[in-house]
Amino acid sequence: MHIQTAAVQTLRDHEHGAVVPPVHLASTFELDAATEDAAYAYQRGSNPTRAQLEQVLATLDGAEHGFAFATGMAATAAVFSTLQVGDQVLLPASVYGGTFRFVDKVFPSRGLTGRFVDDLGALTDADFTPATKMVFVETPANPTLRITDLRRLVELAHRHGALVAVDNTFMTPVLQRPLELGADVVVQSATKYLAGHSDLLAGTVTTNDPALAEAYALAQKAQGGVLSPSDSFRLIQAIKTLPLRLDRQQANAEQIVAHLREHDDVTTVFYPGSHSEDEARIHASQATGGGAVLSFELAKGLDRVRFIQALRYPVYAVSLGGVESLICRPATMTHEAMTPQARAAAGISDELLRLSVGIENIDDLIEDLDQALAAAR
Ligand SMILES: *Cc1c(COP(=O)(O)O)cnc(C)c1O
């Protein structure tokens, strides 16, 4: 079954033949008095609607186990919940701001250390110590869209007994399935492409490892950051159009990248594979497309504020993945928690703008970018 079919058809067979799955809002479920047994007992532990979503999530990622959390950060916290006092995690310097905050503010009190690395692709055996228990990676990186070779990273980390966790928010299983490349766990902010309409917060975790699956189920039960049945239902419905939305968003993004590259008012354009032929080759070997996020810098002398004010369609806001185009300035919005030196090392200049491309008509988007560039001149 192809992913477009799986997104729509995974939940078709159920009790009443309804084409849309039911929503079970019950917080508690009747137990058998003799055995005190039931498929479901209390909503936090598990419930039929969340279980259906989790089945879809697992199917899309080619995973044995799927877990739905209230936010992407709750999902990330669950992934970090398997670490023990003294453990070290390697992460990219440009890692998502919320993940950076977790490592910076929460790790110390738990006896964990995070080491931020400029380029996970350049890791060698010497970067691993006996304490290194996890590599947490985003490829493409945000907002530079740099690529990390997942197969190489998995081989290296596993040789040192470290897990590989991939934040696949920018790609989704439609474009990249890290478990198939050997990664141990995949986390996503479903708030972005999976939900896709900027109206829902959710996080997902998938794995094939039974021991990790047990730990994530415990995180749901013990930490409690689970997705509600109503939001689980809304996410099930949203995922049905994920492949369709992302197809259009990516096609729009590719045209915008080509257009901006030829534009005299734009200097740098970052898109997966744009940094080098090597990265382009690696990305093509592990993903089926570049996705719908790009970043760029205006040419010297152009007024950035004027440009953003003149845009009619892309909304100046953080987040990404929605059907409407969004634009933001990573240095002050998504990556403000990094030091200026760390941002410079990661290639995030103060002038870099990140565009999350929506499903609007491409001619309207290009015309809008052109008129805003003209206004900024
Ligand atoms: C948004 C985001 C998160 C966090 O997700 P929330 O749903 O906002 O908690 C994690 N990773 C990446 C790459 C993100 O873009």
UniProtKB/TrEMBL annotation:
Gene3D superfamilies reported in the protein's UniProt record: Aspartate Aminotransferase, domain 1, Type I PLP-dependent aspartate aminotransferase-like (Major domain)
Keyword flag Lyase: yes
GO cellular component, one term: cytoplasm
GO terms of biological process kind: methionine biosynthetic process; transsulfuration
EC supergroup of this enzyme: lyase
UniProt catalytic activity: L-homocysteine + H2O = 2-oxobutanoate + hydrogen sulfide + NH4(+) + H(+); L-methionine + H2O = methanethiol + 2-oxobutanoate + NH4(+)
Cofactor: pyridoxal 5'-phosphate
E.C. designation(s): 4.4.1.13, 4.4.1.2
GO molecular function: cysteine-S-conjugate beta-lyase activity; homocysteine desulfhydrase activity; methionine gamma-lyase activity; pyridoxal phosphate binding; transferase activity
Claim: Amino-acid biosynthesis is one of the keywords in the record: yes
Record SUPFAM superfamilies: PLP-dependent transferases
Classification via InterPro entries: Cys/Met-Metab_PyrdxlP-dep_enz, Cys_met_metab_PP, PyrdxlP-dep_Trfase, PyrdxlP-dep_Trfase_major, PyrdxlP-dep_Trfase_small
UniProt keyword terms in alphabetical order: Amino-acid biosynthesis, Lyase, Methionine biosynthesis, Pyridoxal phosphate, Transferase
Pfam families according to UniProt: Cys_Met_Meta_PP
PROSITE patterns: CYS_MET_METAB_PP
Modified residues (N6-(pyridoxal phosphate)lysine): 192
Sequence similarity: Belongs to the trans-sulfuration enzymes family.
Protein name (record): Homocysteine desulfhydrase
Organism taxonomic ancestry: Bacteria, Bacillati, Actinomycetota, Actinomycetes, Micrococcales
